[in-house]
Design goal:
Elements lengths: L1 E5 L3 H10 L6 E6 L10 E4 L2 E4 L4 E3 L5 H8 L6 E3 L5 E5 L2 E4 L4 H6 L5 H15 L11 H8 L3 H15 L3 H4 L4 H13 L4 E4 L4 H14 L2 E5 L5 E5 L2 E5 L4 E4 L1 E4 L3 H7 L6 H4 L8 E10 L9 E4 L4 E5 H4 L9 E8 L8 H22 L7 E13 L20 E2 L11 H23 L1
Length: about 450
């Protein structure tokens, strides 16, 4: 069976690695860029390793990546972020983030009665009996909950942090999605970890697995420009070739998949997914030639909805000796801005607030910069998981293709959905191949 996978990000590489284990399956992995990894692409500069996608893994002991580690025999190390150095800044006060019961007791974000209520909510989520799962959105739940304003704000901020979205969007995340996500996360013994060496450690092993099979080709700088059906085969056209395949996997942002299928017989069936908006953030990376300060592993500014992670405090492999790598993230919500000028002013304001957060907690950072990268609108995931947007199913009715990626249906959020949907698509293809034989 000949298989085409369009897209060499985490999802496409995962699907290809699983399928490469099947002797009867051959394939081509098409990637428009000159490198694999998609938004998890890693590069080095002046001894610093930077990721276009954050390589934090939430709840790694319950994560799809751990399943892949066992099934694909991946080899990597991870290290947990120091939970005692994860802090929130609210007003002029800095306090422990309520990541677990110890920090919840210590935090000053909530008064004693509110802490008791929040402990009760966490317990109910762990037991999978929390009422949140019965509400259409987080906003509907907190409006009906009768909770104090601090509890409501804390719920919003937790969802902002884990879904990488602004508070306005946090209120639109479906209640069942949040209940399921935190049920899994609160049960984890390792809530926030970094893969040491970044995503490249994972993507390189997935590619090596493909290469070792001898049956898969990696086609870099070769984007697919068209798809057609003829005589029982799906023909993919690129600038270099036109080649037939038995199965085709779209492992790309949903918006690109919809665009590629425009003008084909399958276009009408993709229409429900064409207006889904992506999750975008501002990413502000600075590699410093020396450690200027190390008060936190993570500091979240609740006042302005942005945070800074001292990535090198957890993953020392990313910096030269004596260096420090800080990554700032600002949640964005500019959908209501009407003009380019308004959007530009908004992004400049977010940049200024980010730099002010660096100034407050990492004095001297400006004079120690060795590497700097600012992405004012970086896509975190191709479909923002909020009410009004629709994740793309792995199979769409009346469409003969397979779909995977962080904008598709799967377990978890962000990178986990890319991994889990890629794994699921490989399973579906294998099941279809077995059914065809029998």
């Amino acid at each position: 069976m000949d298989i085409a996978i369009i897209g060499g990000g985490l999802a496409g590489l995962t699907a290809a690695a699983y399928l490469s284990e099947q002797p009867a399956m051959r394939g081509v992995l098409f990637e428009r860029s000159p490198q694999l990894g998609g938004r998890a692409f890693t590069y080095e500069k002046a001894g610093f390793t930077l990721n276009y996608g954050a390589h934090a893994v939430y709840g790694i002991d319950r994560h799809t990546l751990t399943v892949m580690e066992r099934e694909l025999k991946l080899t990597f190390e991870s290290k947990q972020v120091d939970k005692r150095k994860v802090m929130y800044e609210k007003g002029n006060q800095i306090t422990e983030a309520p990541l677990d019961f110890v920090n919840l007791v210590k935090t000053d974000l909530l008064r004693p009665l509110q802490k008791m209520r929040f402990v009760g909510e966490i317990t109910a989520i762990i037991a999978n009996i929390h009422q949140l799962k019965h509400y259409a959105t987080l906003g509907d739940y907190i409006a009906a909950s009768g909770a104090g304003e601090d509890v409501k704000e804390l719920w919003e901020h937790l969802v902002c942090s884990n879904f990488f979205i602004a508070p306005e969007d946090a209120r639109k995340v479906p209640g069942p999605v949040i209940a399921d996500y935190y049920h899994n996360l609160f049960l984890s013994q390792r809530p926030v970890n970094y893969v040491l060496g970044s995503w490249a450690v994972i993507t390189n092993q997935l590619k090596a697995k493909m290469d070792a099979s001898g049956r898969w080709e990696t086609a870099l700088k070769e984007g697919v420009d068209g798809v057609r059906y003829e005589k029982g085969k799906y023909w993919l056209k690129t600038k270099n070739r036109e080649q037939p395949f038995d199965r085709v996997v779209f492992a790309m942002p949903v918006q690109q998949a919809v665009k590629l299928l425009a003008g084909t017989p399958w276009e009408p069936f993709m229409a429900p997914y064409e207006n889904s908006r992506p999750t975008e953030v501002m990413v502000y990376d600075v590699g410093l030639r020396r450690v200027v300060a190390r008060p936190f592993s993570y500091i979240s500014d609740m006042n302005n909805k942005l945070f800074i992670t001292d990535v090198s405090a957890t993953d020392h492999t990313l910096v030269p000796e004596g260096g420090q790598l800080l990554q700032g993230i600002a949640y964005l919500h500019d959908d209501s801005l009407a003009t380019d000028e308004e959007r530009k002013a908004y992004l400049e304001e977010r940049t200024a607030r980010m730099e002010a957060l660096f100034d407050r907690h990492y004095p001297g950072w400006r004079d120690a910069i060795e590497v700097k990268r600012v992405s004012k609108k970086a896509m975190v995931q191709s479909v923002k998981h909020i009410s009004g947007n629709r994740l793309l199913p792995n199979r769409v009715e009346s469409v003969p293709f397979y779909f995977c990626g962080d904008g598709c249906e799967g377990k978890g959020e962000l990178a986990e959905r890319a991994f889990s949907s890629g794994r699921r698509v490989a399973q579906l293809i294998l099941e279809s191949a077995l059914a065809a034989v029998h």
